[in-house]
Amino acid sequence: MKILLNGLSLAYPISGVGQYTLQLGRSLKALLGNGNIFWFGNNELGYGQEYSEPIGLNIIDRVQCQYKKGLRKVPGLKNLGHLWRDHQFRSYVRKVTPSLYHETNYAPFHFDHGPTIVTLCDLSFVRHPEWHPKDRVKHLENFCLKKISQVKAIITISEFSRKEILNLLNIDPIQIHVTPLGIDQSFHPAGNRLEGLPNQYILFLGNLEPRKNLPRLMKAYQSLPQTLKRRYPLVIAGASGWHTHELKQVLRLFQRGERPILTGYVSQGFLPDLYRGASLFVYPSLYEGFGLPVLEAMASGVPVITSNSTSLPEVVGDGGLLVNPYDVDLLREAMRELLEDEKKRREMIERSLVRAKLFSWDKCARQTLAVYEKVLGKLG
After folding, report:
1. CATH H superfamily, domain 202-356
2. Domain locations in the chain?
3. CATH topology match: 3-182+360-378 vs 202-356
4. Model's pTM, two decimal places?
5. Angle of the 342-356 helix axis to the 328-340 helix axis, nearest 10
6. Which pLDDT score, from 0 to 100, does residue 144 have?
7. Residues 6+ apart with CB under 8 A from 373
8. What angle do CA 272, 275, 277 make, to 5 degrees?
9. Quick one: fold of 3-182+360-378?
10. Which of 70, 138, 326, 361 meets the CB 3.0–4.6 Å disulfide criterion with 27?
11. Beta bridge pairs of residue 204
């Protein structure tokens, strides 16, 4: 079995989809052995080569990232880029002759050498297009939604997302398979803390974009008692995204000395240390297909507050505190409770560590491999 994965999402700054692709590919390689997993490209190492993430920050990656962000503002360029990549993809397919193509990033390229499987992590661009850049929505409409009926199977990462696909797209339920994400073994309570940050802090991690609900998080934090704010600064870690005007407006409301610490993008090699230094992880997202940062925080022994909606309750289970993400007062009181009640913090950490052990990338890869085998078996 020769599996082709699209490695373009592995470029800096690696996103949730990129992390899923990377960890899935590594785990599939461990199951199938060398010579059975092929990557179509990535922006650092070139087409057909494996991705190897450097530890630390790379100035070349940063420059390339800013250059690409500027290009994305050109109307229609994303669609033209996909067509050019499609041409490169076909050339690579002729070279490696895979038996199956798994597109982990929504929009599949043309593939006629075998079955195509697509992962739809979530449908936020369908449910809430206003949260995304218009060019991205159009791109996904053209190259994902219009092609999805042609694929042999759809993989998604939570029961919530499976229901969204059934409700929003005309897809046969038998085609949809759920393979929950895993947790890397580097996330655990024992270890170093990230240098340069306060001794204790409240942490949010994720791209700065509308569905992450950062304005409400900052308002909830701002209304905490002064003693708690002085003791626990708010650290917001993540790459700058889009539609951040409201976030910037709320930031201006903070007095000097209380303003949240914005770290920017933190590379994967530093994330375990970032989590371990946190006293509390808060993730009040309005819409998630899974919510990997919540699971990473739980595995790191950090108490978690997250939303009581979309996929997050099925990931967190009893390992975190669930709140209405639209209610600033409830969010503030949840933070205050976990910062002041040491007994409840310890109990939650114990439950979260147990819960996190239910998820692994090996399990995700084995479930994914079962989908591959089922699809290839039907073709004889």
Report:
1. Glycogen Phosphorylase B; (3.40.50.2000)
2. 3-182+360-378, 202-356
3. yes
4. 0.90
5. 100
6. 95
7. 1
8. 110
9. Rossmann fold (3.40.50)
10. 361
11. 236
